[in-house]
Amino acid sequence: GENVEQHPSTLSVQEGDSAVIKCTYSDSASNYFPWYKQELGKRPQLIIDIRSNVGEKKDQRIAVTLNKTAKHFSLHITETQPEDSAVYFCALPGPGTYKYIFGTGTRLKVLA
Amino acid sequence: SAVISQKPSRDICQRGTSLTIQCQVDSQVTMMFWYRQQPGQSLTLIATANQGSEATYESGFVIDKFPISRPNLTFSTLTVSNMSPEDSSIYLCSVAVLTGKETQYFGPGTRLLVL
Questions:
Q1: Tens digit of pLDDT for each residue in A30-64?
Q2: pLDDT > 70: what percent of chain A?
Q3: Residue B97 Cα, gap to closest chain A Cα (Å)
Q4: Which member of A41, A71, A98, B41 has the greatest number of CB atoms within 10 A?
Q5: Residue B90 at interface with chain A, using a CB cutoff of 8 Å
Q6: Residue B36 near residue B91, CB atoms below 8 Å
Q7: Shortest CB distance from A104 goes to which of B42, B92, B103?
Q8: Does A54 lie at the interface with B, CB-CB under 8 angstroms?
Q9: CA atoms within 13 A of residue A70's CA, in its CB half-sphere
Q10: Contacts of A105 in chain B (CB under 8 A)
Q11: Rounded to whole angstroms, how far apart are CA atoms A70 and B32?
Q12: What is the residue-wise DSSP string for B50-72?
């Protein structure tokens, strides 16, 4: 079955620096790649997603890149701010389904 | 995106009892799912709630322990039966509106503590 590996598990950056989180998957048929942010005590919220027909997508300080050949996709946060501190999850719909497999999560701390 | 509510938001229960969690969406959605998130962990899919038929369970989850109902396109319930402390988790429902994207949106979650 599909497998998703997410790294790193924790990440601390200074305010203003960039953060990169990477997910690697196994099924080459995957074609939709969302990222969720979960603040403490709150629900996961979609922050950005990408389809396999594009290699990069940006939304202000957040971007997602996709390398289908290498089977990985990454979340990039630039000019980090304290409010970016949260747990970030990548997710992957299983092939032929709408069920998600979630990565193990990355706890990002932005130090002021 | 859809507006999703869950009830209760939290509960403390005694072992051996059951709790039913409700998920309500403000619009008709095609897919509804139930997840478990244990403390400090990722989200694990329990089952897909099918409208008008039995839910589809993932490996490791069974209907006797987690009975699910979905009587219509906007409402679903998850029951956690015969609870033990190991069932202490956050339970989240999610919905997907199939408009060419497989995006899922999550309810606020139910925080369950079993003593």
A1: 888 999 999 999 999 999 999 887 799 999 999 99
A2: 97
A3: 10
A4: A98
A5: no
A6: yes
A7: B42
A8: no
A9: 10
A10: 41-42
A11: 32
A12: PTTS--EEPTT--TTTS-EEEEE
Kindly give the pairing relationship between strand B31-37 and strand B89-96: antiparallel
Closest partner residue to A100 (CB to CB) among B101, B104, B108 is B104
Q: How many CB pairs under 8 A join A and B?
A: 46
Give the number of residues written for chain B. 115
| Predicted confidence (pLDDT) at residue A95 exceeds the cutoff of 80 | no
Nearest by CB to B96, from A43, A89, A98: name it. A98
3-state class of A1 per DSSP? coil
Instruction: Give chain A positions within 8 Å (CB) of B102.
Output: 32, 93, 98
Left (φ > 0), alpha (ψ -120 to 50) or beta: where does B2 sit? beta
Whole-number pLDDT of residue B100: 62
Q: With contact defined as beta carbons under 8 Å apart, do A47 and A36 qualify?
A: yes
Least CB–CB distance from A100: residue in B41, B45, B107: B45
Would you say residue B94 has pLDDT above 90? yes
Q: Which residues contact A59 (CB under 8 A, 6 or more apart)?
A: A47, A48
